[in-house]
Amino acid sequence: APVTDDPSDTAAPAATAASGESEAPDPNETAVPFTLGDQFKDVHDVAFPAEGPILICFADPDGGEHVSPWYDSAKERYTDEVAMVGVGMLDGYPRMMRPLIRMFLRRAAGDVPILLDWDGAVCETYAFQPKVPNILLVDAEGWIRYRVNGRISDAEKEKLFAAVDKAIAEAK
Length: 172
Fold this sequence. Notes:
Elements: E1 22-23, E2 34-37, E3 43-46, E4 54-59, H1 61-64, H2 68-78, E5 83-89, H3 98-109, E6 114-117, H4 121-125, E7 134-138, E8 144-149, H5 154-171
Parallel strand pairs: 4-5, 5-6
Antiparallel strand pairs: 1-8, 2-3, 4-7, 7-8
């Protein structure tokens, strides 16, 4: 996807989602590559094939409040085996707010890059559902293996991690 004058202003193309719980995706559903800038104004390409599985979490400010519990567990469990990508749905914020949003995210997320979807095109591609985390597991070849939209219970987290473990084993 092309990068516009602001490295955080980019778009991409289309997928589907479950409502509030996990779903076994269509076996023919592939992830769409995208390019977005982060709160540090660094540009990131999410492309396939990749070196290994990728967990992508899309969230708006309301959904972002519910990311930490599963994210922290996943980061600790998978350290270097799985790429983890956070995408912030920021459609609707005026352009003049962008520096303040970036500053807030630098403080809130520390050195973890949050890719900024200012126009919502990337999130829309993946059938984003507002106010909850939208999590996709994409295997190294770009196939969407698992998705969950909503707050993640311990049982749901274990299902997600089982799918990640399987994707890691298949990538080896």
